[in-house]
Inverse folding.
């Protein structure tokens, strides 16, 4: 009986010890990573901003190229054109409303919806797949 109690307490304290070691190692590793970055950011903020922007841009470019390779050029082109149309339509709408050109703003919004529809119609990746499946039958 005493052996079970001691075993239970030892496993309990063992778990607490493992948790504390994990907590301290995470804090130490965070400090080792964050302190030099903080020191670099405060001593040379312009260079830090430039380097961080380059790193983030390179990572974004890598993931975009990887996605284009995986999804195909036609599908990626369709996605990016739709994204540009949505963003530019929204920007034009907001800008024209703020300049008190409401009729032009709604015209720009309707034009962006129409252009989005045309892009979806002509650059649809599934349309090409449907045509191939009909030819096989």
């Amino acid at each position: 009986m005493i052996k079970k109690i001691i075993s239970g307490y030892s496993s309990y304290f063992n778990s607490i010890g493992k948790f504390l070691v994990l907590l301290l190692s995470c804090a130490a590793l965070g400090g080792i990573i964050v302190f030099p970055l903080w020191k670099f950011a405060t001593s040379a903020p312009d260079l830090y901003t430039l380097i961080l922007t380059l790193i983030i841009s390179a990572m974004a470019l890598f993931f975009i190229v990887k996605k284009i390779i995986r999804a195909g050029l036609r599908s990626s082109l369709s996605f990016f054109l739709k994204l540009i149309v949505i963003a530019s339509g929204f920007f034009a709408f907001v800008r024209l409303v703020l300049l008190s050109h409401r009729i032009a703003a709604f015209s720009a919004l309707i034009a962006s919806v129409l252009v989005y529809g045309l892009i979806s119609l002509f650059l649809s990746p599934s349309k090409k797949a449907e045509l191939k499946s009909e030819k096989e039958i």
Summary: The chain is about 95% helix and 0% strand. The first helix runs from residue 2 to 43. The two ends are 77 Å apart (CA to CA). Helices lie at 2-43, 45-71, 73-98, 102-122, 125-136.
